[in-house]
Write a structure and sequence with these properties.
This protein has 456 residues and is mostly helical. Helix content is 72%, strand content 2%. The protein has a two-stranded antiparallel sheet.
């Protein structure tokens, strides 16, 4: 521990910095003297503060050997017999997550300043991005299940606003509604799980629920229903089969939004939820984790096969995300907790890099259709090499980050479920195939002329 134990106020600052950014932009953006580029600066400053605070939180979590730093919850409101409290929770898992969320979000906001320059509604864009980041940070830091659920829904709301940012486009409006409606199925099951566990145990504190489950204080039927409800919520948010259908259409939002959704916010929220309640999943009947593992493995295989036949570079990356999230879910199902979070960490950075590279290509060519590209490595060498590095990491090529995290997942699968090891190995090969196909179609060969912009 370099900086000493992080104070509770600093942990709250991680959350409230983007909240304040959102409120300031919403309050001032219609003022005649307010300039659109100020919204980007306010957002970057706020998330920069959150990032610095997250470094302290991560340092404290590491220095405490990953054990929880206990902060007393604060009374919020009483609803009938339910005393609702709010609080923050820092341990190894949440420490890593806040660092990932703030790091990727900060880089995406810096990129967005140039990408969204001259676009209509820039202030609305940065306000929504601040809300999106705050919602994900609130979800990760929550010490109460109800508090987590509220932020879970805020993540869904913010994604709806950002996917449908260009609401005057019918395709964008339809994609936003599709994402919002499809994820509601999983969210309803999540809500039922919250109601079930509170009605049977009287608990909403996350740590207390996990402790009671491990101690055998929750009946098998109740624990099965609770964990299946949580998993259903994760299936929706993390775009796992059969609720994966919303994510490819979510490409209708601005490309930096796609980078943030896929790398560090909405789709990894489901993985975080399973990981946060992993002791409860372990205490549940074995069939629950079997279902988790095989759902993740099947989703990874299905999405990888779909990624091979896409011609839109963002859709290739979208199916790649579904597949890689499936990898993480599969890892959790075969008791690979560390491997899953390790892959979440590495995936966040190389997937954000790939999406931002796709945005750079779009700015140059006016299209996301790889059939209209080709030969761009000569004109865009920096974008080319960064895209190659991200692709190599995603493909699991030694010695890049993706190699190490995928290796751990495959090792855990080999130990527990040989069938899933075979599936994981196939997915690894298919991932390399569709990413190198994307590189060759985009950057090699002859330039095919581009077309009218898909993203303006």
């Amino acid at each position: 521990m370099i900086l000493g134990t992080v104070p509770e106020a600093v942990v709250w600052a991680i959350y409230f910095a983007p909240v304040i950014s959102f409120l300031v932009i919403v309050a001032l953006h219609r003022a005649p003297w307010f300039q659109d580029d100020w919204a980007g600066r306010i957002t970057i400053a706020a998330i920069g503060i959150a990032w610095l605070a997250s470094l302290w939180a991560l340092d404290s979590a590491i220095g405490n050997d990953g054990e929880s730093l206990a902060f007393a919850p604060h009374a919020w409101v009483t609803l009938f017999t339910l005393d609702v409290t709010v609080g923050v929770h820092i341990d190894g898992l949440s420490g890593i997550m806040v660092f990932v969320v703030t790091s990727v979000s900060l880089l995406v906001q810096v990129y967005s300043v140039g990408y969204m320059e001259g676009d209509r509604g820039v202030s609305r864009y940065f306000a929504s991005m601040s809300l999106f980041t705050a919602a994900m940070l609130g979800l990760v830091l929550s010490s109460s299940l109800l508090q987590l659920f509220v932020h879970w829904e805020l993540v869904g709301l913010a994604s709806y606003l950002l996917i449908g940012f260009w609401f005057d486009r019918p395709s964008a409006a339809a994609a936003a509604k599709k994402a919002f409606i499809v994820t509601r199925f999983g969210d309803f099951a999540f809500l039922l799980a919250v109601i079930l566990i509170w009605s049977k145990t009287g608990l909403l504190d996350i740590a207390a629920i996990n402790e009671l489950a491990v101690a055998g204080g929750i009946g098998a039927a109740v624990l099965t229903g609770f964990t299946l409800g949580l998993f259903s919520g994760a299936i929706g948010k993390s775009a796992q089969f059969p609720l994966h259908i919303w994510l490819p259409d979510a490409m209708e939002g601005p490309t930096p939004v796609s980078a943030l959704i896929h790398a560090a916010t909405m789709v990894v929220a489901g993985v975080y939820l399973i990981a946060r309640f992993f002791p409860s999943f372990e205490a549940a009947p074995a069939q629950v984790l079997d279902l988790v593992a095989y759902t993740g493995g099947f989703t990874a295989l299905l999405a990888a096969s779909l990624g091979i036949v896409q011609t839109d570079i963002k859709r290739v990356l979208a199916y790649s995300t579904i597949s890689q999230i499936g990898y993480m879910v599969m890892a959790l199902g075969v008791f690979g907790f560390v491997a899953a979070i390790f892959h979440l960490f590495t995936h966040a950075f190389f997937k954000a890099l790939l999406f931002l590279g796709a945005g750079s290509v779009n700015h140059a060519t006016g299209t996301f259709d790889m059939r209209r590209m080709g030969g761009l490595r000569s004109y865009m060498p920096i974008t080319y090499w960064t895209f190659v590095i991200g692709s190599l990491s995603l493909a699991g090529v030694f010695p890049l980050a993706g190699f190490w995290s995928k290796d751990e997942i495959l090792l855990d699968a080999w130990k527990h479920e040989k069938v899933l090891f075979v599936a994981g190995a196939l997915v690894a090969g298919m991932t390399a195939l569709y990413m190198f196909r994307a590189i060759f179609m985009t950057f090699w060969g002859e330039y095919q002329g581009g077309e009218g912009s898909d993203d303006d």
